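Standup notes
- DV: blocked on the single-chain target, sequence here:
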Amino acid sequence: MDFEEIGIDLEKGQEIILGQANFSLKTTDDIARVLIASAPNIKVGTAMNDGGMKITRTSGNDDRLEKQAGELCHLLGAGHVFVCIIEGAFPVNVLNDLQNVHGVCSIYAATANPLQVITITTAQ
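- DV (later): unblocked, structure below
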């Protein structure tokens, strides 16, 4: 097993939500739509990794945040993980709605603080 520590530093005014969901072609879009509907003036970039084909799908209403979420999600590399980067709202404004998205299994972090993610790579 290989362990890796990935540091995540956000820009001023950004919040991040990390979680896990069942991957489908529409899950990333569903997550983005719910976040956009949850708070007025929110800017959203979401990304999610497929488990098998190593595809990172992105969605959102802000191209810069969508690209940032996609790059970070790809860097994490874990299947079924999603990353949401938001501006103009706090996680507390959107978490209840996000947890009710069909397919969302777990929320691991929701913060504006520097974050470290530990990944483990196995032979599988």
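- Follow-up: Residues 63-76 form the longest helix (14 residues).
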